[in-house]
């Protein structure tokens, strides 16, 4: 029975080639579109799911990257009473200069952030606390690996960017 169905389908395909090609191309485009939409939604829903309460964290951005003007944070908070915490980030372009006593180094991949960033994201502190972090100007929070790289007792001549 299945052999007959395949034979009839083949005869119709050969008899009506243009109609059959239009149907096959349309079906292939529809399937490709569905898969692309599914993969896009799956990708968008997978960002930063390791934070507690990640369902309520939103990102405001323009199409190129996540950026906004500085007054936008307060305007969003004033205009939308549902917003409880706003945090702003800004990446240092060529890196930030970290100074400690007589030692200076350039730290690449660093960000400027508001002090409210620790109200929004749950980071574990090895030393210090989230309540006292980033309250004063020119203060910094660093990862444990960066602290070991910059602040361990090593000869200053062996360190880069002296």
Describe the fold and architecture.
The structure is a single chain. By secondary structure, the protein is of the alpha+beta class. Helices cover 38% and strands 10% of the residues. The protein is built from five helices and four strands. A two-stranded antiparallel ribbon has the order 1-4. The protein has a two-stranded antiparallel sheet with strand order 2-3. A hairpin with a 2-residue loop joins strand 2 and strand 3. The model has no long low-confidence stretch (mean pLDDT 80).
Q: Could you name the ranges where pLDDT drops below 50 across 5 or more consecutive residues? A: none
Pairing-aware structural class of the strands and helices?
A: alpha+beta
Q: Estimate percent helicity.
A: 25-40%
Major sheet, described briefly? 2 strands, antiparallel
Query: What Rg, in angstroms, do the CA atoms define?
Result: 28 Å
| Chain-averaged pLDDT | 80
* Strand order in the sheet with the most strands: 1-4
Number of strands: 4
Q: Which percent band covers the strand fraction?
A: 5-15%
Primary descriptors:
single chain, 162 residues, alpha+beta, two-stranded antiparallel ribbon, 5 helices, 38% helix, elongated
